[in-house]
Every structure is written in C-alpha cells, then in structure tokens.
Amino acid sequence: MDELINELIKSSIKAKNKSYSPYSRFKVGASILTKSNKIFTGANVECASYSLTICAERVAAVKAISSGEKKFKYLAIATSRTQSDFPCGACLQFLTEFSSNLKIIVVKSSREYKIYELKELLPKNFIL
Ligand code: THU
C-alpha cells in the first residue's frame, strides 16, 4: 500500500504539468487511487469564460468514473504553490457523491504531505 501511495503522490505532482491554466497561471494536479488499485490523474482545465473552468480533482474523478471505476480510496492533490492546497468545496461535494470514505492527500512535495478524511474537510454535504 505504501508503494501505491508513493506512486499516487508522484503522479499528482506530475499531473500538474498537463494543466491548462493560461488565466490563473495556477497549476493543479490530482491523482485518484480506485478501490481496484488503478490510478487516474487529472489537471485543471481553464476556459476564457472563466466559470467553465474544471478543477483537477473533478477531471481525475470523471476520467475514473467514465472508465467504469466509481469507488475511490485516495485522492492526492498537488499545486504549483509550495504551500498545502486543499480541494475546493465544489470538488469535495463531487467526490462525496462517489466515495464518502475517501482519504485526501494534500501534497507539498513527494516527501511532505498530510492525509485527511474527506468527511473532516466537508463534515456536512448536500444530499438529494
Ligand atoms: N483549482 C483546482 O483545480 N482545484 C481546486 O480544488 C481549486 C482550484 C483550479 C481552478 C483554476 O484553474 C485554478 O485552480 C485557480 O482557481
């Protein structure tokens, strides 16, 4: 498992290189480890109509879901800043839809990271 977590963290750092962020110049990479131990990566994709921008976490999640993987164990997030950046509230709600027991790895570097429960970052979520 430790090896997979290391791979997940490294792939989130690498994924930010694929960010399309000409407006904010803020690169985000996300990487999801599914229940079946597959890794899906994503990067933020911006648009001239700013509100159409899609966060890296949702890009990774949608890639996994549309490949038939709906259950996630871990999501790692890395950004172009050196500080720890948490997923935004919209992404937390989106991720809760699929895996409310998800663990979120906030990555500072391949050696410096912290693991949180999705539930502690979004204690209350919208349910229909
Ligand atoms: N962004 C993400 O990719 N994930 C988040 O959780 C928050 C923000 C992106 C969206 C936009 O491209 C840039 O970061 C600045 O908001």
Which helices and strands, and how do they pair?
Elements: H1 2-15, E1 28-34, E2 39-43, H2 56-65, E3 72-79, H3 89-98, E4 103-107, E5 113-117, H4 118-121
Parallel strand pairs: 3-4
Antiparallel strand pairs: 1-2, 1-3, 4-5
The structure holds tetrahydrodeoxyuridine (THU).
Helical coverage, percent range: 25-40%
Please write the CATH class name: Alpha Beta
- Poorly predicted regions are none
Cα-atom radius of gyration: 13 Å
Mean pLDDT: 97
Q: Output the strand order for the largest sheet.
A: 2-1-3-4-5
The CATH topology: Cytidine Deaminase, domain 2
- Give the distance, in angstroms, between the N- and C-terminal Cα atoms: 34 Å
How many strands, which pairing sense, and closed or not: the largest β-sheet?
5 strands, mixed
CATH architecture: 3-Layer(aba) Sandwich
Shape: globular
User: Domains counted in the coordinates: how many?
Assistant: 1
Our count of helices gives 4
